[in-house]
Amino acid sequence: MKKLLGILVLGLFLITPSQADDIRDFQIEGMSVKNSLLDYYTLSEIKKSLLYPTFYPKSKKFKVIKFKSKNNELYDAIQFHIKDNDKNYIIYTIKGTNYTSIDQCLSKKKNVVKEIKTIMPNAKIKEYIDDYRKAYGNSKAYVNNFYLKSGNLIRVWCSEYDMDNATVKKKSWNNDLNVSVYTKEFRKWLDEEAYK
Known about the structure:
By secondary structure, the protein is α+β, with helices and mostly antiparallel strands. Helices cover about 25% and strands about 25% of the residues.
């Protein structure tokens, strides 16, 4: 049973490394950062998604675009960060989201974190709870960050939203499990430009 669970966890998140510190080797639904979205989607699909991009408050260098998952057994949605006006559509982050109850999320997250620790024994790990600076009532995120020597990052977290919060209601947010892969360049921009 434990072996089956391990296979299920790896199958669910499709994080497949061949060299632990090469961020391109970590995949979500077979997709990797530093590759082009055109490797995975048609130009027509990309342009349709680009009709509804999200930008950060202080910089439009990167934008967020979303797609429904092609394999609904793994994720409900896939999100990417690409540079604004980049006609090559290079991926700087990729995130898979699975909408689930908080109890199921925390259980799945525990197993995913365990698997990543096995795969990346040299990564620096930080575990914490983020309260979103109380911007969304009593909402919380239960986070594990895996810092690679290269400066890239893999993050696994569960979002537990305060369903009584006005913003949460307005945006129809649901509790979810997230697995993200961030490039060093994107992380630097997020820390230094996106909100300042």
